Amino acid sequence: MTQLVETSHFVRWAAACLLAVLLSSGCAHTTTVTAWTPAEIDVSSMRRVSVLGLSGDPGDLAARKLTASLGRNKHYSVVDRFDLQQVQWTSGATDRTGLLSLDNLNAARESDVDTLVVGEVLESSCHDRRIDSIGEAGTNVPTSEVPENLEAKQPVDREATVAIAFRLIDVESGEVLVAKQTSHSYHEVVSGQPGTRTHSEILDDLTQQCVDEFAGLLSPRELHEDVTLAKPVLFVRGYSFVWNGNEFACRGCWDEAIVAWERAITINPANDAALYNLSIAHAHRQNFAQAERMAIQAVNLRHTPLYETGLERIRQQMSDFDTTLQQRQDANW
Length: 333
Description:
disordered N terminus, two-stranded antiparallel ribbon, alpha/beta, Rossmann fold, 6-stranded mixed sheet, Serine Threonine Protein Phosphatase 5, Tetratricopeptide repeat, single chain
């Protein structure tokens, strides 16, 4: 009889361990949510914008990329600089005060453009340094001496930087509305493996990052960010539904995830993991009032750093979304 009891306990323990192992597999309990961030400046008066030009090498490339980036946002009518009237491109940057010349401002006014972007490419460089036999980088090697498509036996330390200064000019007043300098860098040891990016490809990507950073100041934009889901607690009622909901959310199946988490709450209204994960789902769908209410319930049930951070994030998302809506209404977007 004693042996049967011990066997029964062992079976239960083994089953619990097996269940724990099964539940510990799968995704890392993170999912991607959508949020909106407002423009960082007052854009209510901006209707038609033109990228007048960026000096420096390769300024033309950066100007084209910025024109395309602003056009993709669909918040403004982007006027090609060559459509502006009577603009002298040889002096198309600014005078010593940082303001546009009167000719350029008049050309923009005649084309019904209210804001202009000018600037300068401060740096656009990519250098290789040979790596010696003990793995340390040596002196810089002129680009002309190091082929961009390296052989596998020629490892080099590759560094690149692009820095651009932008200015947004109000056409009516000629004043600088925004002055922003952006910089992005790249550093990697490369040796000609398949897929290794060339100098020009790296500089093109860094230029795009600088351009997108500045364009982000001028437009409300949609962001995608990774957030951590609450894991179910073993032997707490509803844990299997929480786990299933997490698996669905990891795959982006939000309808199925919500159904599973709501089922967990039906079984156990005090399941804080289900409440917290539902708050993430509702914030993802911009249902912020319900998201905040459920996050508060989760915090009250179990005070954890994850829940506190999540509640703060939801409140920030709600504030950013309201500001974004107001900006869009003010600008009639």
